[in-house]
Please model this.
Amino acid sequence: MRIAFTTKGDKWESMMDPRFGRTEYFLVYDDKSKEVTVYDNTDVQGEAHGAGPRTATELFKLNPDILITGNGPGGNAGTVLEKAGIEVYIGAGQMTVKEALEAFLNNKLEKI
Amino acid sequence: MKIAIASGKGGTGKTTLSTNLSVFLSETEKVVLVDLDVEEPNSGLFIQGKLLSEHIQYKEIPEWVQEACTLCGECQDVCNFNAVIQLGDSIMVFPELCHSCHACSGLCPVGALPMKPKEIGLIRKYKYNNLDFVESRLNIGEEQSTQLIANTNHFTDENYNNDYIKLFDSPPGTSCPVIEATKGVDYVVLITEPTPFGLHDLKLAVDTMRDLNKKFGVVINRYGIGNDDVIGYCEEENISILARIPNRRDIAELYSRGELLYDKVPEFGSEIISLWNNIRKEVEAE
Model:
């Protein structure tokens, strides 16, 4: 299982980014191989329109099964994530990435 | 003659000025008032005319033809608005993000993205005594007001000849919708209030109009509140102050009942007259 997080940094101790479309980074954790992949999404700040679908497309390329984020994606991004078959869990916006993973594993996050 | 009533800050009196000036002028001239604040057109609250006709408005968006598509990705690459994206072996189109530029459709090597019309809003034509009134309203959920404003400008050109004085109640702000609403006019009236917030947004509006090479002047609404900084700014920048509408309780009361002011509050009516005289002078001056 591959779990993606919207984050403000590239470490387990980094804070989560509560936003989806304009998240600064994705951190993707593979729970079998224990490998962590970091994707830098900061380029999206220059986009005036359609940050959500663009970020969702980039996330799709990272091939996650699950997304853990804060506020939850907007309508356009949500459409892409649904089509991509990525499950979305929200409510982790104020946690570190590590805390977010623990909260997810303990069923503390809301699925949308 | 085409005149836009615009502002940087919202809620400074664009509609109050547009409706009163247009009804006043229509007593002696051929006038059409066009409400281009398509996200929330409210001139109609003050001008309840007889509905003459309705015209559904469309924009063009690409529609994916799966059978023709080779998944080359060109459409996604050329879209500046992330309105077309490739997700694995499918292409997704986001109609609300699309600016109808045709780039994806025209550059698709196999013609897999033909443009199709999508309803985005409604133009209504009214008659109120001697005044012609055009209201343009964007459908709920639509994000691109600029296309509808462009359609409405075209509609106005087609329906009303150059004998008309054309007044455009514009959207607030300084972004694409305002530029579309003002780009074809001879003169822009920027209405503001004499507060720090009003001045801040007036400066943005002035910069925009200068970039567009527009003739413009300023009306100060609710004159008497705030401070004199707007006047100081206009003097420094050589900007004409066309009228000063006093801050008065009776104006607010009439407005809140949806009534016109120029024929009921003499101090307001006299400002509308001097506003019109000043606009004419400025338009005719080279």
User: Anything to note?
Assistant: The longest strand of chain B covers residues 115-128.
